[in-house]
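Sorry, any thoughts here?
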Amino acid sequence: MDDVDHCLKANTSLHLSEKATGNRDFVSGNLVDVSGEEGQAGSDRPRIFSPFGLGVLDLAVGNFVLEAAISSNAAIALPDFFSNSARW
């Protein structure tokens, strides 16, 4: 579980949970483990996914900041910053 070890350091939320409980019993495995048959948590336990290290977390935070800036009129347009801005 090297990928789980990677998440349980540097005071991430998972690491702080480990410190608070004194164990890793709350960890069922990585995303592949819990999405497969053998690693699934029972319905009696909540399933929490930590996207630590995944680009999707960076995208979500970036989008949140962008939308907050746009809604508060603090966003500054930078023409030609991206070669293709048609996706906006």
Summary: The first helix runs from residue 2 to 7. Residues 77 and 83 are 14 Å apart (CA to CA).
